[in-house]
Amino acid sequence: MRFTKMHGLGNDYVYVDGIAEDLSVWDLTELSRIVSDRNFGVGSDGLIVVLPSETVDFRMRIFNPDGSEAEMCGNGVRAFSKYVFEHGLTDKTDLTVQTGAGLVRPRLFVEDGKVVSIRVDMGEPRLMRSEIPMQGEPADGQVVNEPFVVDGSEMHITCVSMGNPHCMQFVDDVDEAPVSDLGPRIENHPVFPARTNVEFIEVLDRGQVNMRVWERGAGETLACGTGASATCVACVLNDLTDRAIQVHLRGGTLTIEWSSEDGHIYMTGPATEVYTGELSDAALASARVR
Ligand code: ZDR
Q1: Closest Cα to atom 8, ligand 1: which residue?
Q2: SS3 label, residue 191
């Protein structure tokens, strides 16, 4: 199986072209566990599969390193767009991609045949508690700066869905934030029936924040595009920043805008191809279904 390793700000994924490869012989859950493993596999924050779509340009599926399938991935969809353009699957620079979170629309900025930056219309954030999804009342209300206790630790959380769930809190200093301690406990807390991604945000000024993320099914990663998008929404809902901000992540910076015109989130940032390789049958043996 051929694959391509790509990343957006160090949030890295193994890409497999499901248009060229017959993926029906593979269990994609197990395949993601294998390729994501940094010792026994390629090493990544998950597996992304490029698929044809009957209605729009392409379909993207994303699997976490633990094998769970997620709805959407912001860094992943930027790298996906670069992949399909530079590997000759399309010559369009305005794409529509079907994801588990609905349609997203990447715009590619190309110089000398290379995609140097991608701006993605991520659609509208979903703010209702039931849409996160999160248990509690009122199901049709927003979760903004709500008191929350995990194993005796008290905090205030703001929750937003970008098609995938995000639970955010504001901290004084992201370097001191208990990401690997609280992250997994919030991720797996029973009030989040689909589990959740967890973000720690330090507001620098009305136009910039630092953010660290604990990703559902993956652990701490260097960056998260849907998390940065949700962060912008959380900052605006708490009146801590303007609607267009720079989100500084461990792996670099994303520009996020929550448009007051159409209510959509626009995420802008780079993507990088690292290498293309071939996985051996022996490494993939446990993922073969026929
Ligand atoms: C896939 C994900 N771990 C989840 O389960 O929702 C979220 C990852 C999002 C990804 N890093 C991004 O949006 O860039």
Answers
A1: 73
A2: coil
Q: What is the pTM of this model?
A: 0.97
Question: Among the options 73, 159, 167, 232, which is catalytic?
Answer: 73
The pLDDT score that the predictor gives to residue 268 is: 98
Cα gap 188→120, rounded to integer Å: 29
- Residue 185 burial (10 A CB sphere; 0-12, 13-18, 19+): middle
The reply to whether 73 belongs to the active site is: yes
CA 192 to mean position of chain CA atoms: 18
- Distance between Cα 217 and ligand 1 center (Å): 9
The pLDDT score that the predictor gives to residue 287 is 98
Is residue 108 within 8 Å of 93, Cβ to Cβ? yes
- Name the residue of 60, 62, 80, 196 to mutate for ligand 1: max ligand atoms within 8 A of Cβ: 62
How far apart CA 237 and CA 78 sit, in angstroms, is 26
Q: What is the pLDDT of residues 89-121, one digit of tens each?
A: 999 999 999 999 999 999 999 999 999 999 999
SS3 234: helix
Q: Which residues of the chain have pLDDT under 70?
A: none
Task: Sort residue 226 into left (φ over 0), alpha (ψ -120 to 50) or beta.
Answer: alpha
